[in-house]
Design goal:
Number of strands: 13
Low-confidence stretches: 136-152
Number of helices: 6
Main location: membrane
Number of domains: 2
CATH superfamily of the largest domain: Cupredoxins -  blue copper proteins
Distance between the termini: 70 Å
InterPro entries: CcO_II, CcO_II-like_C, Cupredoxin, Cyt_c_oxidase_su2_TM_dom, Cyt_c_oxidase_su2_TM_sf
Structural class: alpha+beta
Family: Belongs to the cytochrome c oxidase subunit 2 family.
Mean pLDDT: 86
Strand order of the largest sheet: 1-9-6-2-3-4
CATH topology of the largest domain: Immunoglobulin-like
CATH class of the largest domain: Mainly Beta
CATH architecture of the largest domain: Sandwich
Subcellular location: Cell membrane; Membrane
Helix content: 25-40%
Enzyme class: translocase
């Protein structure tokens, strides 16, 4: 007994399928646009590029997810067995055309995401190329300004367990709160004095490992006035979650005034939640696991504040 040949879908079925695919595309586009609202505010010239890539990937992922769920729902509702039917399913052979289609579609989607990501990565490289520099001596890593190796617009970022220090070589100013001028390119030089840290400013869409024994230079441009938050994105020990600092983007006049005020201020202890909590723990011991002793708070001109509200 030979089985009947499979029926080809009629025009009504093709129309319904086309309408459903169109609906999935519309929903995916809507979700892709909504994804911009899930991110923190955009505060650097890199943020729109990263958010655009995230939106594209969100739209593609939504379309694939809804498409798979739709096929599963269609099979469950239309092709389920009748009640009390315990017979074996009808043996069928593979469908070469269908196999080619469901292999080609993921290939095209993955290649599209890869191509878009490469384009974004290229544009980010143009905005702020990164350069790894091997530190040549312990003295160069431990202290002081880096002399002629640091251009005037560069900010040196020093990570420790568990505090941040920011140095402005041109003005001989240091702080534990990062101040940047609006719409002016800035080059960071990241240095770690102990272990691996992560320099992460969500509003800038910027995340870079800070590697011991290396200096990493890269540039960006702040594009929005506000107060944002710098976080340590790498587990670096007990107080890594408290290893945070405020990032203040301000106008040129406000930035110049802050630098002038900071340059006139004497050195004092900077902000270090870890050092404060460790000192309190030594005074009022209450058990717990042993921990690495935090580095002393850096001596800076402008400690800043950790209690002011921030945008992201």
């Amino acid at each position: 007994m030979t089985s009947a040949p499979p029926r080809r879908p009629g025009p009504i079925a093709l129309l319904a399928l086309s309408l459903w695919v169109g609906l999935l595309l519309l929903v995916s586009l809507w979700v892709a646009r909504q994804s911009f609202r899930w991110m923190p505010v955009q505060a650097s010239n890199a943020a729109p590029l990263v958010d655009g890539l995230f939106s594209f990937e969100t739209g593609v992922g939504t379309f694939v997810f809804l498409g798979v769920i739709s096929v599963m729902g269609w099979v469950l509702l239309v092709h389920r067995a009748e009640k009390y039917d315990e017979s074996d399913a009808e043996p069928i052979e593979g469908n070469t055309r269908l196999e080619v289609i469901w292999t080609a579609i993921p290939l095209v989607l993955v290649m599209a995401i890869a191509w878009y990501a490469i384009q974004i990565n290229t544009e980010l490289g143009v905005l702020g190329p990164m350069e790894h520099i091997h530190l040549r001596s312990p003295q160069e890593q431990q202290g002081g300004y880096a002399g002629d190796r640091l251009p005037a617009e560069q900010v040196e970022v020093i990570a420790r367990q568990w505090s941040w220090e920011f140095r402005y070589p041109a003005e001989h100013v240091s702080s534990t709160e990062l101040h940047l001028e609006l719409d002016r390119p800035v080059t960071f030089r990241l240095v770690s004095e102990d272990v691996l840290h992560g320099f992460f400013i969500p509003a800038f869409r910027l995340k870079q490992d800070v590697i011991p024994g290396r200096a990493i230079d890269f540039s960006l441009t702040p594009t929005r006035v506000g107060r944002y938050r710098l976080r340590d994105s790498q587990f670096s020990g007990t107080w890594f979650a408290a290893n945070q600092a405020d990032v203040v983007v301000e106008t040129a006049d406000d930035h110049a005034a802050w630098l002038k005020q900071a340059a006139a201020a004497p050195l004092q202890s900077g902000l270090s939640v870890a050092a404060d909590e460790y000192a309190d723990r030594q005074t009022n011991p209450h058990g717990g696991w042993p921990t690495v002793v935090p580095a002393p708070p850096p001596q800076v001109n402008a400690p800043g504040s950790s209690s002011l509200p921030h945008d992201a």
